[in-house]
Write a structure and sequence with these properties.
This is Nuclear transport factor 2 family protein. Residues 8-106 form the SnoaL-like domain. Pfam families: SnoaL_2 (PF12680). InterPro entries: NTF2-like_dom_sf (IPR032710), SnoaL-like (IPR037401). By secondary structure, the chain is an alpha+beta fold. The chain has helices at residues 3-16, 20-25, 44-51, and strands at 27-35, 39-42, 56-70, 73-84, 89-101, 104-114. It has a 6-stranded mixed β-sheet. Strand 5 and strand 6 (104-114) form a beta hairpin. The protein is globular, with a radius of gyration of 14 Å.
Length: 122
């Protein structure tokens, strides 16, 4: 496994248990996390606040279906489940595009689609 894929796997493993230090160790200081049309977080501090989103309870369950690499780009396709504070359950599929720099995540663009068409993310 390449160093970039190892970083993404470590990032996902750390996110599954909400381990902030492990997640942040995978990122560049000027990291950008974007979910087009929803949010854009810049820097580790902003990223850290989103690891345990205020709308959710506990840690998510994350499954990776495909992990593809070309140059310094990693594409992860998968599924995620989580419990929301409002009583709803998140059951979604995602495609994350990781732009890597020196073995760390420089930019993450997340595309998320709920399997429940009526679910609101707020």
């Amino acid at each position: 496994m390449t160093p970039n894929k190892q970083t993404v796997n470590e990032y996902m493993a750390a996110f599954r248990v909400s381990d902030h230090d492990r997640v942040l160790a995978c990122l560049t200081d000027d990291v950008i996390w974007e979910m087009p049309g929803i949010y854009q977080h810049v820097g580790k501090e902003a990223f850290d606040k989103e690891i345990e989103n205020d709308n959710f309870v506990g840690s998510p369950t994350i499954q990776i279906i495909k992990l593809i690499e070309e140059n310094d780009i990693i594409i992860a396709e998968g599924a995620v489940q989580g419990n929301m504070k409002n009583g709803n359950k998140l059951d979604a599929v995602f495609c994350d595009v990781f732009e890597m720099e020196n073995g760390k995540i420089k930019k993450l663009t997340s595309y998320l689609m709920s399997k429940n068409a009526n679910l609101k993310f707020e």
